[in-house]
Specification:
mainly beta; Porin; eight-stranded antiparallel β-barrel; 11 strands; 55% strand; elongated
Length: 219
């Protein structure tokens, strides 16, 4: 009889333990979307008349944003961060407009730019502690510091590469917005100032960029 009673209590203790093990834990202090990766297309703005964009001008970025919820339900938050971005701007330059040669002579060129980014976002999302699938609208401001800039060109069988750090603006400023559901989010990034320092270029160059692409958030 004592053996039966012992087995009885052991059985129900085991069931109770297993139930407490499988019960989901709800984190009421959850944070969202603290790592990001984006891919985008650079649409060049305010280009000189002899510039024509070609192929796919790539924009890539990745970084970390610290999520700080500011509402009780944690739907609103601010998120400062730090990251890295790369831009590959592709264009052809018609030299006939700046030389005495009347025949058309085009140079294929690429401007390769590397930046450290410091974004600051204001965030809205209808997230909950037990689901990672939700709608989001994030808007922000970004300051970027130039790490390195290169100019690559190809013309009439020749090619070369030039460091152009001295004629670029060290800081870039932009506004941006991301919006979407779950994994897929549209990304629009608008540059506020030119890439080139107008005081250090032979001709005025006010090229800026509009980036259109996708943003992916992790954790």
């Amino acid at each position: 009889m004592r053996l039966f009673v012992s087995l009885f209590f052991l059985f129900f203790a085991t069931i109770g333990f297993s139930q407490s093990e499988t019960k989901p834990v709800v984190d009421s202090l959850f944070r969202e979307d603290q790592f990001y990766v984006s891919i985008s297309y650079n649409v060049l703005q305010k280009t000189p008349d002899n510039f024509n964009q070609y192929s796919f001008s790539t924009g890539l970025s990745a970084g970390f944003l610290r999520d700080f919820p500011i509402s009780e339900n944690r739907h609103w938050a601010i998120a400062p961060g730090i990251g890295y971005s790369f831009n590959d701007l592709k264009q052809t330059i018609d030299l006939s407009s700046v030389t005495n040669n009347t025949t058309s002579e085009s140079v294929k060129s690429r401007i390769l730019l590397h930046y450290v980014d410091v974004p600051l976002e204001i965030r809205w999302r209808n997230a909950s502690p037990d689901s990672h699938k939700f709608w989001r609208i994030y808007g922000g401001f970004m300051a970027s510091y130039l790490i390195n800039g290169k100019f690559k060109y190809e013309a009439e069988g020749t090619s070369g590469k030039i460091e152009i750090n001295d004629i670029l603006n060290k800081f870039q400023y932009a506004t941006y917005i991301t919006f979407g559901f779950n994994t897929w989010n549209a990304y629009i990034h608008y540059g506020l100032n030119p890439f080139f320092n107008k005081d250090k270029t032979a001709t005025e160059n006010n090229v800026t960029t509009l980036k259109i692409g996708l943003m992916f958030y992790i954790l």
